[in-house]
Amino acid sequence: MKIAVTAEQNQGLESQVAHHFGHAPYFILVDVQEGEILSIQGIANPYANAHQPGQIPQFIAQLQANVILSGGMGSRAIEFFEQYGIHPATGADGTVREAIEKFLGGKLKEAEACSHHEDHG
């Protein structure tokens, strides 16, 4: 399973999770198999400063991620991710490592739209 995590820095598992996926400077891609991390890759978000609805979910789909973890995201973005077969989970915080551990432990909630970011995608 390939997990994309929104990040403030490109520091691998020690990066801080970005609170809103659309403005995250980076995505940390973590390939996990049977609970074990196989690889870690930092990718700059080409749409961090400006994006149209659906561009970031399409970008994440091209990276072949199965899951996106973030602090939060709008309802339209959630719909786009689901159309691509990507499972969005929100409520992530702390480091990328902590977010991955919470997700694998079933402690991150299903994606819920941010009340103040309804139109972002």
Overview of the structural elements:
By secondary structure, this protein is α/β, with parallel strands linked by helices. The chain has a single domain, classed as Dinitrogenase iron-molybdenum cofactor biosynthesis domain (Nucleotidyltransferase, domain 5), CATH 3.30.420.130. It is 21% helix and 27% strand. It has helices at residues 55-62, 75-83, 96-104, and strands at 2-7, 26-33, 36-44, 67-70, 87-90, 109-110. It has a six-stranded mixed β-sheet, with helices on both faces. Residues 113-121 have low confidence and may be disordered.
**Strand order in the largest sheet:** 3-2-1-4-5-6
Report the CATH superfamily. Dinitrogenase iron-molybdenum cofactor biosynthesis domain
Number of strands: 6
Q: Give the amount of beta strand, in percent.
A: 25-35%
Tell me about the biggest sheet?
A: 6 strands, mixed
- One letter per element, helices H and strands E, the order comes to EEEHEHEHE
Helical percentage: 10-25%
Q: Structural class given helices, strands, pairing?
A: alpha/beta
- The geometry reads as globular
Please work out how many helical segments DSSP would assign: 3
Rg result: 13 Å
Low-confidence stretches: 113-121
Q: Can you give the mean pLDDT? A: 90
- Give the termini separation: 23 Å
> What's the structural domain tally?
1
CATH class reads Alpha Beta
> What is the CATH architecture term?
2-Layer Sandwich
The CATH topology corresponds to Nucleotidyltransferase, domain 5
